Amino acid sequence: MNMSSLVNNEKKGLIEQWFNENRIVVGFAIGFIAVYLIFALAMQSKWYTVMQIKFAYRNNNVDILNRYIDIPSIVGGCYDDVTGDLFSGVNMKAQEKQTFNQFYKLIKPAVCQGTVNIVNEYMTENKWLPPRGSSVLKGREMGIDYEELLERSLVKDTLIKKIGRAETNKTGQTILPILVVDRYTNTEFTLQFLLEKDKSYVWRIVKIINYHDYLVHVRDLCAGDISAYINGTQMRITQYNTYFRRLQGQFSLLAENINETTPAIERTKVKNFILYKIIPAYRDRENYLQMVNVPSGALHLHILRMQSNAKTIEAWQDFAAGMGTNDPMELTKAEENYQAALVLEQKVCDIIKKMPALFIPEIE
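Given the sequence above, the corresponding structure tokens read:
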């Protein structure tokens, strides 16, 4: 046996001795590496993504939801589905529809970014908060009624009932079926969320494949309820509106010459007319609306009517107070409430006329 063989045998012996002495450490290291590799592969699986989404939804974990749900992409796709469906059933020239489509494409980035912020706030606060601060979605700065656009999207009225398992559809796409229910019509629907791998090979939700089908399904159900509600209340509402116009005419005559120098006795006449004629009339309509049997699909329309009536009463109450005391602040508050009531009433009229209930640019 030569020197080289002796050295090799000695090395082998030392290695074997080391392994024997450190068998537990070596086994632990191998096991740790194996577990790590298995876990790393699992993290890149569809199963792991779905498990994380379920966990995050149950525990309201916004960070995890944002990690596995591409909210900006989903909002963008949903925006296209909502705006593309706005004028269904509305008699409109092709040129007008084209102009509206261009308008909605123009404002899409700002509206979608604002919506992403609102969705993130909802996931954090667990309640829908209106646009505030410097948001361009406040009021009508974007040329639209954003609240009605959000209402049209059904996002605030859709509740999750069950999150399913990832599966492959007929076209080879990986989808996550989620059973939801529309709270107005109490209709169940299975939305199909598309899963795709990102650059890090992590599966994420990027789109709702059949969201447009859901919008059409609920819209068609609501259409029958809205029609029944309108027909059932039309006669009484027309009678009220006729009476309100008559009262408005009488009020205009009484208040025609009212100014800062008008004697208190004349102001009191106007104030009493409001308190004992106009407000009781709106109270009577309020009582009637509270007694109406409202089909579930017409609930949004009915709520808008109730809100409009309530805001109108507030406006007249403030006007009466300002008229009695000649208080400019009360009169200013009355004007603000009156304008708010007009906005609500416009929404009611838009729904009844089957318009999209959005403020849109005029067509020359």
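The beta strands are 158-163, 167-168, 174-182, 187-197, 203-208. Try to locate this feature in the token string yourself.
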